[in-house]
Amino acid sequence: MRVNREKCVGCGQCVMFCPMDCFEMRDGSALINENECVDCGVCLKSARCPAGALFMPEENFEYPRAIRMQFSDPTVKHPRQNTGGRGTEEAKTNDVTAKFRRGEYGLMLEFGRPCVGVWLKEIEKVTKRMYELGIEILDDNPIFGLLDDDGSGNLKKEFADEKVLSTILELKISGEDELMSSLERILPILDTMNTVVSVGIVTRFDDGGGLALVDRLENAGIPVRPAAKINVGLGRPLKRD
Ligand code: SF4
Ligand code: SF4
Q: Which residue segment(s) compose the domain that 43 sits in?
């Protein structure tokens, strides 16, 4: 995003809408730190600018910069996945899609947050380790499309210096033992990252309605806050496992 400083009247109305704190008032008009701006479009969509001074420069729609708005503005689609936003959100729809079947676990690593964001080169630390461990990164996840095709987990170089508001890396792990050993190896990497990371596990209830996995995680020193978000069909056929 950019400010046309010829038009800007210096009212400061745009400043409060930025989730990345990118605005600065200088010499009577607004200025955006375009390195930190993630092109989420919130300032423009707030429609508070009385002077029509905010605009998205044409070059921000070009790669690699275009990746910022694809992750940070949910109304912009990732062309490869034809979805918008930071992840495919299958954690919320597994009751319908059965993407993660019995014995399979979804591991969701959510990087960044409003006010923090995440540089994509930070995520490479995790994707490289994933490939070394042989853990599958789901190919319908937006991050998958940013990786080199050589199976190294390296980010395509042109994306390394791009920043987004947040993104969710989605992984599929078969077997509870494999899940535990993967967590043991992944969690220390997250501590080295220059952003906030939330870890989520997608699983099904045990046959008796319990979640034995919770005890196992807590016994391993991993705090758990169980949560359920259930979609009941949304017009899609239920897949059975
Ligand atoms: S596009 Fe988003 S990140 Fe950029 S200045 Fe506007 S509100 Fe801030
Ligand atoms: S809202 Fe518009 S006119 Fe007011 S400071 Fe921001 S860019 Fe300038």
A: 2-61
